[in-house]
Design goal:
heterodimer; A: 145 residues; mainly alpha; 94% helix; rod-shaped; B: 538 residues; 17 strands; elongated
């Protein structure tokens, strides 16, 4: 009887420990799940911001391409006007005004292009920095994905 | 006008005498305290003018009143002591009509007159210089406000004339406009500007205000903006200092300009673009050569894979404190790799380096010093090969276009450019993979600065692009016109044996064209800079 009683007590105590362990495991699993959810959210946000960044970069690069084409056109026009002036050896007022306007336009496009290039530099470079700033598990998740 | 009874009648008469008739004349009495003398003169012109009387608001306040009330499209102002030439409006309106663009600011030469109205001199501005550098008209203080004709809309968009600065309101307005509107000089005197003893612009308060204004201009003009005007910030500051000291008596601003000019080469930012290439085995030496510079760059842009450099090199980079940027573009052509690096380079001056080459210690300092003081946008240096041969490429300098089409000794690892060239679309065009084409485009129409000191150490690198470069130049709309120089280039190729298509593929793998031209290279110690010009350079 004593032996049975002892076994029952051990089982009862063991069951209690098992219940405690089960509760602990459930809590751990819950926290793990929320961590996984957090990483997922972080990952989707990172992907979205990467997408947006890529879109902005593509947009600014298109602008840079247009600015470069404009610069080539204006330069060709200005070279033509300067050449015309040199050939005629005479100051043609109209040609000169057009040449000043071409030079001014050129400078304005150069400055606009510089703004675009700075923007491209900013958009292209910080990808690395923002990546570094993410929590390590998110970085790992991003790498795995 | 304020208390301007002495000259007002002549000024109004000169405005009424304009050969261009479709004009509206508004006279603003800005709180005169002369017992009604100014008012009675103005009223004497009857309904030929619109007369407005207001409490004293200063010149800017009076002009803004006119801007609000005027019904015309273009605006021009006249001080009570100055006179318009009869053809002023007609000439300027005809220019605006012919240019088919209303959004420009016209200004002109002018004559000086004394109190009696006699002409004492003519202020003829250097028209040719202004045509090439329109913004200098502002920075050199060449714009006389009364010579201006501008669309009202342009002024109003900028907020009208800036009030609160009785002596510098005009230049404050031009400063806002010059960045977004072309200023066009008309090379003939269109007004007469009177010099007399009661001029407010000669007072101490005027000089003080003017000094403050120019100090602000100097502080707020960025490196890039000033380089657009003069090629470099230092050159801009030195030229401004001359103007402020000797032509406008703004001594405080002149001293500030000089002080800023002294510091400019030290403070200007520099990027180095290091192309690690497909095989970065030698990158450690090139990275160390950048870090060992007497004048450190602010940024190092590495083009290539992070895995391509050794852990030791990584550690050195982390310790360096430099801003490091990476660009991985796979195995693109060298020109495309440098182009990719340029996109993230943030420095005002940008140097290039291939992983197989190295910089000598003072390379960056020497190139910045000379580019900064001369305002040059591109420079290169002589170099030594790793066999100890000194190639005096740096003696190739000055106006070398179109000669450069006949053969170029410019090597990428010796070149430093101002970022203005990159923003001008001159460097590494997207559809052109020939490195030499960039140098030709950059040099066309401007000077090349050459330092005849071997400041880089280069490893001969294949392939040569001379044959492709000649084909490119021949097809180019501008360079193709210089047939004689291109022909010289072809002759040189023939002489080197590269003209023979059967030999071209073999020869393309040989050493650099400039070295190949040295038939009997002279062995020299690497530290000696010696001048000898091989015949192929011309």
């Amino acid at each position: 009887v004593f032996g049975r009683l002892k076994r029952a007590v051990v089982l009862w105590l063991g069951a209690d420990v098992l219940v405690a362990e089960r509760d602990e495991a459930l809590r751990a699993s819950e926290s793990l799940r929320s961590e996984v959810d957090e990483v997922r959210t972080e990952l989707s946000r990172a992907r979205r911001s990467e997408e947006l960044l890529a879109q902005r970069l593509a947009f600014v690069q298109r602008g840079h391409g247009i600015a470069n084409r404009l610069l080539r056109d204006i330069k060709a026009e200005r070279d033509g006007l300067m050449g015309e002036r040199d050939r005629l050896l005479l100051a043609n007022e109209d040609a000169e005004i057009r040449s000043v306007l071409a030079t001014s336009d050129f400078l304005r496009v150069v400055e606009f292009n510089e703004t675009l290039l700075r923007e491209i530099g900013r958009s292209a470079a910080p990808v690395d920095e923002s990546f570094k700033a993410l929590p390590s598990q998110t970085r790992q998740a991003l790498r795995d994905s | 006008v304020r208390n301007g009874a002495n000259f007002l009648a002549q000024a109004i008469a000169s405005a009424l005498d304009q050969s261009y008739q479709d004009i509206e004349i508004i006279v603003v009495n800005d709180g005169s305290e002369d017992g009604g003398a100014t008012e009675s003169i103005a009223r004497g012109f009857g309904d030929r003018i619109t007369y407005i009387s207001q409490e004293n608001k200063g010149v800017a306040g009076a002009l803004n009143t006119v801007l609000r009330l005027m019904t015309g499209v273009y605006f021009s102002w006249l001080s009570h002591d100055d006179l318009f030439e009869p053809e002023k409006t007609a000439v300027q309106v005809s220019i605006l009509d012919r240019s088919a663009r209303g959004r420009i600011v016209l200004f002109s030469d002018f004559s000086w007159i004394d109190e009696t109205g006699a002409v004492t001199g003519v202020e003829k501005l250097d028209h040719a210089k202004i045509v090439c550098h329109p913004r200098r008209s502002f920075y050199d203080g060449l714009i006389n406000g009364c010579t201006v004709l501008v669309a009202r809309e342009v002024l109003m968009e900028g907020g009208g004339i800036e009030e609160g600065f009785p002596h510098t309101q005009d230049y404050r307005t031009w400063w806002r406009l010059i960045r977004r509107t072309p200023f066009v000089h008309v090379p003939r005197p269109l007004i007469r500007s009177r010099q007399h003893s009661r001029q407010g612009s000669h007072s101490c308060a005027a000089l003080e205000e003017s000094d403050d204004f120019w100090c602000n201009v100097l502080r707020e003009t960025s490196d890039f903006e000033s380089s657009v005007v003069d090629g470099s910030h230092e050159r801009f500051l030195r030229r401004s200092s001359d103007f402020l000291r000797f032509r406008s008596m703004n001594h405080r601003a002149a001293a500030l300009a000089l002080q800023m000019a002294e510091n400019a080469p030290e403070t200007v930012s520099v990027s180095v673009i290091l192309d690690l290439g497909p095989n970065a085995a030698g990158a450690t030496a090139s990275i160390e050569s950048v870090l060992a510079q007497t004048r450190q760059p602010q940024q190092l842009v590495l083009v290539g894979s992070r895995n391509s450099i050794t852990p030791a090199a990584h550690a050195t980079l982390e310790k360096s404190g430099l801003e490091i940027a990476w660009r991985d573009v796979g195995d693109a052509a060298p020109a495309a790799r440098l182009r990719a690096g340029l996109f993230v380079a943030s420095g005002v001056y940008i140097a290039f380096l291939f992983a197989s080459d190295t910089f000598e210690r003072g390379k960056i300092a020497a190139q910045i010093a000379i580019m900064s003081v001369w305002g040059g946008l591109i420079s290169h240096t002589s170099y030594a090969t790793n066999h100890g041969i000194v190639v005096p490429a740096g003696s190739f300098a000055g106006k070398v276009y179109p000669e450069i089409l006949g053969g170029s000794p410019v090597e990428a690892s010796t070149v430093m450019v101002h970022r203005l060239l990159w923003a001008s679309g001159c460097l590494f065009a997207e559809n052109c993979e020939i490195m030499g084409a960039s140098w030709i485009d950059a040099i066309a129409g401007r000077g090349l600065i050459g330092l005849d000191r071997p400041l880089s150490r280069l490893t001969p690198r294949a392939p040569s692009e001379a044959a492709r470069l000649i084909e490119w130049a021949r097809a180019h709309p501008r360079h193709g016109l210089h047939r004689l120089d291109i022909w010289r280039g072809e002759q040189r190729l023939e002489r080197d044996g590269r003209g023979d298509p059967s030999l071209r593929s073999v020869l393309d793998g040989s050493s650099r064209p400039f070295e190949a031209a040295l038939l009997h290279p002279v062995e020299l110690p690497s530290t000696t800079a010696t001048k000898f010009a091989p015949c192929s350079v011309g």
